[in-house]
């Protein structure tokens, strides 16, 4: 071990003052997401179960997802074509899921009504 040449390797990181605009944006985002989640919570206890409630939940979840992606993944600052290339397929998939739920419910209702007639 070499004596006499003990070098301290200090990190040269600089502590920056907090960016108030970024902090405000985070709080604004948290507030918006909390409001949407509160709406979902209220709807869960006030709207009867069914396709309408599922559609509302899927829609509000999409709003939250796009808001999170837009803010935290900075997608809202990207080229509009990139945004639409992500949003359109996602909307189609969500429409497809809702359509399957509605059709599945209709088929279940038909089967139950046919079985009741026998």
Give an account of the 3D structure:
The chain has helices at 20-46, 51-72, 80-117. It is 74% helix and 0% strand. The chain is mainly α and 118 residues long. It is built from three helices and no strands. It has one domain (20-117). The longest helix has 38 residues, at 80-117.
SSE string, helices as H and strands as E: HHH
SS class: mainly alpha
Helicity range: over 70%
> Number of DSSP helices?
3
Net shape: elongated
Topology at a glance:
Blueprint: H1 20-46, H2 51-72, H3 80-117
Helix pairs in contact: 1-2, 2-3
Task: Please give a quick description of this structure.
This protein is an all-alpha fold and 118 residues long. The protein has three helices and no strands. It has one domain.
